[in-house]
């Protein structure tokens, strides 16, 4: 097997795959290492993004937005929304027009991975990068997996392994995050949800999502992504509650959400640590990019 690459990408979720696709499309020799068996599964996000038109308004100086959105085929869009409704702790509601897309992120990642492979990128499933070190001007990664075992050498390393990033730790990049800059988020995709299919709903309140917020994002046909995030610093409060306690309380006790979710049944469950403290202190250093 090949042992030397221009770029080694640690993690093949949406950031890693898109980096691999764009790089391989320019003739760069790319290896992507992914710990999951199946690309895109499990989904660990709400899957909601602005439409291209709204993203252009949000990032008016970006030169690559259209290129990024060109990667999203129609079959990877589960639903289109036109309104966002915020529910305050007082249960007063505020809403505004905002067109968005709810993705089938698992399918999107799989389609992007296929394109990257067609462009010549290598993808190693069920594999872990155990360490990365600098040696003689290159990066040497120790990789373990059924398709690769041993050292992979690369000129550039992209850490797309999420938070907390082992790539950042091995390469000495500082995040600058403190406890209050990190949230613990959980989500379930649920069916039989009584929602307005074109409305994304968000909920605040310390009883339901302390230091964060909860959401119901409609995927169409009475399915929705239902989740919440709580800042880690708030778990030290009294009385102590687990993330599952917060989720159950939101689903069963919130005066508005509980009515929408009274007959809902979960299809899956995911949990993840999410940085909420802005851009990290160091994004790149010495041919390593996060």
Structure description:
The structure is a single chain. With 290 residues, the protein is an alpha/beta fold. The protein folds into 2 domains: 4-45 and 106-172, FAD/NAD(P)-binding domain (3-Layer(bba) Sandwich), CATH 3.50.50; 75-103 and 178-275, D-Amino Acid Oxidase, subunit A, domain 2 (D-Amino Acid Oxidase, Chain A, domain 2, 2-Layer Sandwich). The chain contains 8 helices and 17 strands. Strands 3, 4, 5, 10, 11, 12, 13, 14 and 15 form a 9-stranded mixed beta sheet that branches. Strands 1, 2, 6, 7, 8, 9, 16 and 17 form an 8-stranded mixed beta sheet that branches. The longest helix has 14 residues, at 105-118. The radius of gyration is 20 Å and the shape is globular. The model has no long low-confidence stretch (mean pLDDT 95).
CATH-defined architecture of the largest domain: 2-Layer Sandwich
Rg for CA atoms: 20 Å
CATH superfamily of the largest domain: D-Amino Acid Oxidase, subunit A, domain 2
Q: How many DSSP helices?
A: 8
Low-confidence stretches: none
Which helices and strands appear, and what pairs or packs with what?
Blueprint: E1 4-10, H1 14-25, E2 30-33, E3 48-50, H2 52-58, H3 65-69, E4 77-87, E5 93-103, H4 105-118, E6 122-124, E7 128-135, E8 138-144, E9 149-159, H5 166-171, E10 182-191, E11 199-203, H6 206-209, E12 213-220, E13 223-231, H7 243-253, H8 257-260, E14 265-266, E15 270-275, E16 284-285, E17 288-289
Parallel strand pairs: 1-2, 1-9, 2-6, 4-11, 9-17
Antiparallel strand pairs: 3-5, 4-5, 7-8, 8-9, 10-13, 10-14, 10-15, 11-12, 12-13, 16-17
